[in-house]
């Protein structure tokens, strides 16, 4: 009996040591893997804009079609419940979206074309207003000249480069834009039509029941949040457009429907859209009003309306479910605007929301903890090993 106890005692002492070595090796492997994933992610983040920009003819219609599929799939499902075939239900959902889009563009573009003829007169009027302001603040120009003389500033030479006119740029860009739009709607139609098969493939072709449940949750969460966000923000922006149109009509501004449509469309672009709308209202008001201060009234009224909408109405309606960091929104806005221009600015928030939902289910990288030596992605097996080690040492 005593011999057996002496033989078993070293085994009990060496077991925790071997477990500790295994856990240390597992930790080193996990940190090495995390470092490689981090380097790969940084490289992908830096290289992706160039790839997406060069291949915008392919990637921009594809991303837009995917977002349209997420948005219009619930409508196609409802139409299918009324007995319509899948093809007709998909075509009907896409037709409804096209009708709303064309109606919105018609309300904005038709008055804008009529207003385009009066643009030279408005520009001349704005120049006169600023000339009047410059005369009132002539002492600032004199002070600037005196400071320049004291600093010994030599006059800079102005170099004027010949660039294509706006009409020439539009003429060159129109064919490619038409091709991208056609490809986008064709992709969206086939994706919406194939939504049932895609769901079955994601759910039933998985290796385990747990992965099927997780895939179903991700699909439902992405579709619900993105579609609800776009529809809710669209209704809020439509209300903003109606209020701006009524306000422009009450103030006597020309083409109030156009200004309401512009306000609704630009409000889809966070931060930058309202700033652009304020600048447009200010320039148009200064160019058409009798004085500068009267011309700034429409812009001031829009700023007040946007302040109420952005700080009270939208947060109370959307709630915490759609709350995102302003820093993330600005990064996404600048990133996709750099890659795809105005289209990227419109798609930046839906793309960010989709990625946020995916990271919520897949897992977010532990960036801050990784800097201080923690793993980039937490491992459940490693945490269970640490718990077993602590229990064995206790």
What's the story with the biggest beta sheet?
A: none
State the assembly state of the protein chains: single chain
**Measured on Cα atoms, how large is the radius of gyration?**
30 Å
Count, helices: 16
Along the chain, the helix and strand elements come as HHHHHHHHHHHHHHHH
* Uncertain parts: 153-163, 165-171, 380-394
Alpha-beta content class: mainly alpha
Proportion of residues in extended strands? under 5%
Total strands: the figure is 0
Helix content: over 70%
Query: What separation lies between the terminal Cα atoms?
Result: 26 Å
Mean pLDDT: 75
The 3D shape can be described as: globular
Summarize the structure.
The protein is mainly α.
List its salient traits.
394 residues, mainly alpha, 84% helix, 0% strand, disordered C terminus
What does this structure look like?
Among the domains are: 57-115 and 170-205, no CATH class; 224-366, no CATH class. The model is unreliable at 153-163, 165-171 and 380-394 (pLDDT under 50). It has helices at 2-54, 56-81, 86-116, 119-136, 138-151, 166-193, 195-204, 209-251, 256-266, 272-288, 292-295, 297-318, 326-340, 342-362, 367-371, 380-393. Helix 1 crosses helix 2 (56-81), helix 1 (2-54) crosses helix 13 (326-340) and helix 10 runs antiparallel to helix 12. Helix content is 84%, strand content 0%. It has 16 helices and no strands. The protein is globular and about 85 Å long. The protein starts with a helix and ends with a helix. It has 394 residues and is mainly α.
Present the secondary structure layout.
Elements: H1 2-54, H2 56-81, H3 86-116, H4 119-136, H5 138-151, H6 166-193, H7 195-204, H8 209-251, H9 256-266, H10 272-288, H11 292-295, H12 297-318, H13 326-340, H14 342-362, H15 367-371, H16 380-393
């Amino acid at each position: 009996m005593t011999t057996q106890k002496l033989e078993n005692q070293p085994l009990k002492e060496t077991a925790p040591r071997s477990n500790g070595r295994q856990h240390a090796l597992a930790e080193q492997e996990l940190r090495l893997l995390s470092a490689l994933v981090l380097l790969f992610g940084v490289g992908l983040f830096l290289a992706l804009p160039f790839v997406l920009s060069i291949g915008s003819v392919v990637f921009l219609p594809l991303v837009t079609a995917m977002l349209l599929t997420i948005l219009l799939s619930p409508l196609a499902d409802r139409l299918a419940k009324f007995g319509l075939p899948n093809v007709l239900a998909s075509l009907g959902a896409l037709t409804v979206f096209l009708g709303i889009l064309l109606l919105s563009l018609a309300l904005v573009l038709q008055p804008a074309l009529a207003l385009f003829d009066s643009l030279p007169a408005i520009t001349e009027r704005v120049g006169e207003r600023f000339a009047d302001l410059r005369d009132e603040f002539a002492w600032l120009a004199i002070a600037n000249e005196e400071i320049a003389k004291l600093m010994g500033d030599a006059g800079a030479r102005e170099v004027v480069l010949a660039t294509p006119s706006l009409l020439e740029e539009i003429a060159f860009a129109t064919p490619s834009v038409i091709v991208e739009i056609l490809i986008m709607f064709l992709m969206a139609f086939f994706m919406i039509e194939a939504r049932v098969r895609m769901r079955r493939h994601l759910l039933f072709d998985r290796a385990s029941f747990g992965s099927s449940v997780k895939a179903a949750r991700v699909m439902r969460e992405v579709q619900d949040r993105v579609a609800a966000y776009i529809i809710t923000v669209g209704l809020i922006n439509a209300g903003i457009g109606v209020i701006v149109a009524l306000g422009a009509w009450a103030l006597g501004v020309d083409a109030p429907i156009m200004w309401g449509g512009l306000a609704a469309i630009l409000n889809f672009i966070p931060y930058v859209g309202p700033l652009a709308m304020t600048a447009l209202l200010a320039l148009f008001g200064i160019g058409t009003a009798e004085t500068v201060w009267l011309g700034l009234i429409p812009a001031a009224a829009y700023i007040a309306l946007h302040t109420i909408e952005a700080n009270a109405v939208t947060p109370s309606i959307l709630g915490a479910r759609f709350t995102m960091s302003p820093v993330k929104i600005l990064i996404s806005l600048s990133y996709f605007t750099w890659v795809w221009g105005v289209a990227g600015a419109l798609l930046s928030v839906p793309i960010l929301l989709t990625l946020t939902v995916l990271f919520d289910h897949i897992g977010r990288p532990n960036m801050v903890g990784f800097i201080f030596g923690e793993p980039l992605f937490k491992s459940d097996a490693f945490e269970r090993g640490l718990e077993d080690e602590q229990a064995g040492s206790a």
